[in-house]
Amino acid sequence: MIEIDQLEYVHANGIPALRGVKATLESGRWTALIGANGSGKTTLARCLNGLLTPTSGAVRVDGVTVARDSVAEIRQRVAMVFQNPDDQLVAPTVETDIAFGLENHGVEPTQMRRRVEEILRRFHLDHYRSHPPHLLSGGERQRLAVAAAVAVQPDFLILDEPTALLDPTARAELMDLVGQLCQQGLGVLHITQSPEEAARAERILVLHEGLLVDDGTPRHIYRQPASLRRIGLAAPFAVEVAVAAGGGAAQAIDPVELSDWLVRDFEAPLEASCEVASQPASGAARMTVEGLTHIYRVGVPDPIMALQDVELAIPPGSITALVGPSGSGKTTLVQHLNGLLRPTSGRVCLDGEDIWNDGDGRGARREVGLVFQFPEDQLFEETVAADVAFGPRNHGCSAEEIEHRTTDALNKVDLPITAFGTRPPLALSGGERRRAAIAGVLAIAPTVIVLDEPTAGLDPANEAVVADLLSRLAADGVSVVLVSHDMDRVAELASQVCVMDQGRVRWQGATRQILESASRQREDEQPTIEPPAPLRLSFDLRLRGWQAPSLLTRAEACRFVGALRRRRVPASQPIQKEQSADARTDRE
């Protein structure tokens, strides 16, 4: 048991991060921790295993107070996985990274080897056992970080956005594994910005500006979506659609419940309405990728074929989404677009010219801006304004032009220079740092901007700011390339989608057709991608005999259910088991 007793934490600049937090975390229970960026979630997590010392209050793990003289014992009981896996991967290969913690805890060699083999299989990493971690995709590195933490068999596991970089299939597998670990007695505190993930937990804690403002079952927490929106959070897709149909969390907290309720309480539509197919932008391509192949570790016995004969056209004034499983080659591909990587064969062209014609690809870096995963790690200047100004200054702009570009870029990401320009980057919240890093790329005035998982780990409010920014950039004629595992966001933003699998382009075209084709289950093969939640609802209703349209976005799904007619029978009752659990929470 972890006891959190009136915990307070104040940053060195005097800003309070936690204010009187009091809660108890139980062994064998899955607890989700949600809150907007800057609400104190990571600060709280780091106090639980001694990474931070609280200003006041206490944390006790099975009766042992977290303090400097007990840190070693506490960290044997409480393991933590950070949002960025690179912060904790230290060994030269995947296999030795998993063994690293076991060695530190003095596990006997025979038992260590057995446990490493078990973990490699459980986390689908056995194929990569000899790979250096830095050559894995972002999602694969996150899986490795979780695997290494689980290998030491702690009593409690703290997961700080562990699925932010995972593809939907790997995310679902990890969530299934968390459930299994809890059944085996492991206590899990799961920090997440995904309402769907939080809804799978047994209990949810809600932090807002350092205060614990709610604590209860998922059905209790998501009973009032409007209240959550006011503090920068969102309800699960199933709840939002149920609300549009006149219900709420009492009727549906997950997709299966939503489909069950709709089919049971509503009349099936007479025919499926035809949604207008989304079309990619027309005209000549701004960038083209032609026969691109890239091989890592050329000349060694085990080279890695990361890309093979990739063809891609990126139109101006459009949003092109690159999707596909972790390790499919998406990040490798986008690192070719501005010359960070040189093709093994094939070429990348900007406005019809090979970007390597100048010998070093430098010209492409003036036109193509690349926003990496965790772009806030790129911030290095003393102030936000100085960091954003670095690119224009490095490109030889005049002082007047630098000031104009810096001001304009910060305004575009909703960080006005008058309020944020003089702040140190590390004084910003996580969402603000992400937007400041994006502003630094916008300041070079790129004609193409490439973003690798730009919304990973952001709360819904910050996600909306970034999504609106991308839409405005495309409307201004910029070619936007978006790498994302968030299929709902892809469905809402992208005009065309490129689906990658095992280093090849498997599907490419208009968003609606590609998402439906690539995510449809076929008899002879697995779907290439998981469908966005609205399209998954369409598929499920069709399996239940309805003529459901192809729903691509949440807005389409809400309009669809809002037009349904209720059956002439009493409405189904809320689920009694969860209702009684909520009642106990309210009484407590």
Your description of this structure?
With about 600 residues, the protein is α/β, with parallel strands linked by helices. It folds into three domains: about 220 residues, Rossmann fold (3-Layer(aba) Sandwich); about 100 residues, no CATH class; about 230 residues, Rossmann fold. The chain contains 23 helices and 20 strands. The strands form four sheets. It has a six-stranded mixed β-sheet, with helices on both faces. A six-stranded mixed β-sheet has the order 16-17-18-13-19-20, with helices on both faces. Helix 14 runs parallel beside helix 17. The protein is globular, with a radius of gyration of 25 Å.
State the low-pLDDT regions, or none: 575-588
How big a fraction of the residues is strand? Answer: 15-25%
Content-based structural category: alpha/beta
For the secondary structure, the number of strands is 20
Strand arrangement in the largest pleated sheet: 6-7-8-3-9-10
CATH C-level class of the largest domain: Alpha Beta
Distance from N terminus to C terminus (CA atoms, Å) equals: 19 Å
* CATH-defined superfamily of the largest domain: P-loop containing nucleotide triphosphate hydrolases
Number of domains: 3
- The radius of gyration computed from the alpha-carbon positions, rounded to a whole number of angstroms, is 25 Å
Largest sheet: 6 strands, mixed
Mean pLDDT: 88
The helical percent reads 25-40%
Number of helices: 23
| Assembly annotation | single chain
Name the overall outline. globular
Architecture per CATH nomenclature, i.e. the level-2 architecture of the largest domain: 3-Layer(aba) Sandwich
CATH topology of the largest domain: Rossmann fold
